[in-house]
Amino acid sequence: MPIIESSIQRVRENKVAHDRRAPQKSAYRTAVKKFEKAVATGSADLDKLYQVTSSAIDKAESKGLIKKNKASRDKSRLAKLLLSSTAK
Q1: What is the pLDDT of residues 20-33, one digit of tens each?
Q2: What gap in Å lies between CA 73 and CA 32, rounded to an integer?
Q3: End-to-end C-alpha distance for the chain, whole angstroms
Q4: How far apart are CA 33 and CA 68, in angstroms?
Q5: Domains in the chain, please, with CATH?
Q6: What is the pLDDT of residue 43?
Q7: Do residues 46 and 85 lie in contact, with contact meaning Cβ atoms separated by under 8 Å?
Q8: Would you give the distance in Å from CA 49 to the centre of its chain?
Q9: For the residues 49-61, what does the mean pLDDT come to?
Q10: Alpha helices (H) in 1-88, listed in sequence order
């Protein structure tokens, strides 16, 4: 535990920021995993799930939870999964 007052304040601020980001990041990860699972099982509503997942990725990127290139990369990979599953 820090001794300097500014360090103590920084620890408090970091905890608040972490507690605010954690559920948002979790929602993003859950959406991606749900889409990947739906593709693996061959679900019928993949287009709707892709839109929801893409939106979750965009929200995470706009809030600064993930970087722009990671968001783009994730969406590209999901689109590739969607195309490969619909081509079967």
Answers
A1: 999 999 999 999 99
A2: 12
A3: 56
A4: 20
A5: 5-86 (1.20.58.110)
A6: 84
A7: yes
A8: 14
A9: 96
A10: 5-41, 46-62, 68-86
